[in-house]
Amino acid sequence: MRKQYLLMATLIVAVFNTLTLTAIAQESSCTKASSTAEQYQCANNELAAAEQDLQSAFADALQRYTPKADDTKENAPPPPQRDQQADYERRMRQRLETSQKMWLQYQSAACAAVSDFYEGGTMGPTAAALCKAEIAKQRAKFLRENFAADR
Questions:
Q1: Mean pLDDT score of the chain, rounded to an integer?
Q2: Where do the domains of the chain lie, and which CATH numbers do they carry?
Q3: Dihedral in degrees, nearest 10, Cα atoms 80, 92, 148, 100
Q4: Could you say which DSSP state residue 149 is in?
Q5: Residue 128 DSSP class
Q6: Is the whole model's pTM more than 0.85, yes or no?
Q7: Is the pLDDT of residue 9 over 70?
Q8: Computed from CA positions of residues 79, 84, 87, 88, in that sequence, does the dihedral angle turn out positive or negative?
Q9: For 50-84, how does the pLDDT look when each residue is reduced to its tens digit (9 = 90+)?
Q10: I need a labelling partner for 147 at 20 to 30 A (CA). Which of 14, 60, 98, 118 fits?
Q11: What percentage of residues in the chain have a pLDDT greater than 90?
C-alpha cells in the first residue's frame, strides 16, 4: 500500500515537471473564451474529444492482442506455438488493462493537484479538465506509438 502512495507521489511530481499549468493553458484553444463559463465549456469539450480518442487508441491496442477469427487451421501455427501465442496475447491484454486502470488513477491524482492549485477559485474545474485532456492526449499517443496494430 505504501509503495502505491510512493508511486503516485512520484508520478504527480513527474507531471509537474513535464506538464506545467502555463503549458496547458497556452496549448488550449480555450484561452480565447471570454468568460469562465465559456472556458469551462471549452475545456470539457476538449476533454470529451481527448477521452474519445483515448478510448479508440486503447481499443486498438487491445485489438492487437485479441485472437483473430480468420486464424483457420490452414494458416494457424502448430499447437505448442498457438498455445504460447494465446498465452502471450492474454498476458498483454491483462497488462494493458492493468496499466490503463493505474493510468486513470494517475490522471485523477495529477489533475486533482492542478485543480487544488486554484482552491477556492473558479478556474479549478477548468484547469482540471484541461489537465485531463492533455494527459489523455499523451496517453493516446503513447498507446498508438507502442501498441498499434501496424507497428
A1: 82
A2: 2-147 (1.20.1270.180)
A3: 170
A4: T
A5: H
A6: no
A7: no
A8: negative
A9: 999 999 999 999 999 987 765 555 666 677 888 88
A10: 14
A11: 56
Burial code (b: 16+ CB inside 10 Å, e: under 16) for 56-78 equals ebbebbbeebeeeeeeeeeeeee
Distances in Å between the Cα of 43 and the Cα atoms of 59, 76, 133, 150 are: 24, 48, 8, 32
Amino acid at 31: T
Q: CB-hemisphere CA count at 13 Å for 51?
A: 12
* Grid cell digits, residue 56: 479508440
Residue 22: predicted pLDDT: 42
Pick from 86, 130, 136: nearest CA to 107: 136
Read off the amino acid at residue 53: D
